[in-house]
Amino acid sequence: xxxxxGIATKDAPRGPMRETDSADLSLEFxxxxxxxxxxxxxxxxxxxxxxxxRACTDLGAEVPWTLRRANLLVEGLEFEETVGRFLHIGDAxxxxxxxxxxxxRMERQRSGxxxxxxxxxxxxVSCRIVTPGRVRIGDPVKLxxxxxxxxxxxxxxxxxxxxxxxxxxxxxxxxxxxALYLVSLVLGVVAKGILGGTILPGSTLRTLAGxxxxxVGIGFVIWFSRAFEASGQxxxxxxPSPEILTHGxxxxxxxxxxxxxxxxxxxxxxxxxxxxxxxxxxPTVLIMQYGVIHREEAYLERTFGEEYRxxxxxxxxxx
Length: 319
Description:
Blueprint (H helix, E strand, L loop, with lengths): L1 E8 L8 E2 L2 E5 L3 E2 L12 E5 H11 L12 E4 L10 E4 L2 E8 L5 H5 L3 H5 L7 E7 L1 E4 L3 E5 L6 H4 L22 H19 L8 H28 L24 H16 L3 H30 L1 H9 L5
Helix pairs in contact: 5-7, 5-8, 6-7, 7-8
């Protein structure tokens, strides 16, 4: 048995954490209308005070638990390997969906914090709300197995599919995009070496088009990398996405990085006077469309719901 010793919410994804003595946990809005409280497997984040203290010890400094940006702080319980189990807090019941892995933002909060949070699930767990209710500082917290919770309670949230196997929370892409584009480039080079072929030998127009395409592509990729670095997210599609980026190039394309990689591949084909690289752009884009982007979109819709659908409706997939 544990005890609830902290409650915090944020009004915006990157907004400050505000501590409170009590909060309503609702199926629609999470913890007191937290900015991340939309229905889904990451509706509520819960942190163990004991695990946080071990992270502080490794860090060599006492830092406030709100730097972790979790919603609930619990004393007396550990959450390592607890996916699928249920937390009873006050009147509410939560189901643990996954480990909340520390992102790069933790390093900006405090140097060394991300590394200190990495072992033993010290970063806490993400949960969905099963039964709404009010929680207060001092409420007892009980960790139950699924079998100990009535089936009706386990299935009480009609807006969110129960994730019986929630160990993975990321887009189930079939290939890593940089690897795909690199393979396409190499195959194009090999094909020309074996089969030959040119586009427009000695053409200034071809060279100019290649330089422009390559430059634009590199610019897109650099901007994307910096935007993700600033947000604290991991660039890999096989890592969880804590928020949707909608600024800068994301106002014009939902996938500026993939636009950039495609432009780089085409630009290299033109500059190298290699028709096989240009031809490789077609299957590469098709693989990206159906093996990567569609899967990412399904994940983002599942995670962010209406927020992502609204963004998807107003911004093109490519350009």
